[in-house]
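Cross-check.
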Amino acid sequence: MKLLLEEKQKFTLPWVWLLIVAITSAALIPVTLSFFRNWPSQGDPGRSAEIVLAALLTYGSFIALYWLLLRACLETRITTAGLSFRFPPFIRNRRHIAKTDIKEYTVTARNPATTCGGRALHMYGKYVLQVVHGKKKKQCIGTRKPKALEAAMREMMQSEQPPSRGAN
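Predicted model, tokenized:
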């Protein structure tokens, strides 16, 4: 099994990170100010608990969002035996599509979210590999290397079938 292409895409768009920081700041500043202005709330321990809970939930939500985006990495691998991909932390285990199961494929310069009905695995960019396999299942995977991916898919589909394990 020969490796033909391996691509890893991380979430690295600076303008998106800037937007996320701006939105986070807009949400966290009022919570933080409320926390320090009303702490401790004289005579109302329930009010103090509400403020602490709101601050913890807000900060926890944004920490979880940052963690997910920092860990997200679309990994695509094409070998002579087939195509595999994973998208941790959302898809942790590698999913395989055997060469023999692939009915057709195309690499197109379209918006991956609209090309595949919003079900494309992609980080950013406008190129998508669309694979029809099995019983008319469609898998869409985004790429930043459309020419290399097209060449690897062509080579995979033209390569000889590996011998079965039980053959003598």
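DSSP finds four helices and seven strands in the chain. Residues 10-71 form one domain. Passed to J.P. for a second look.
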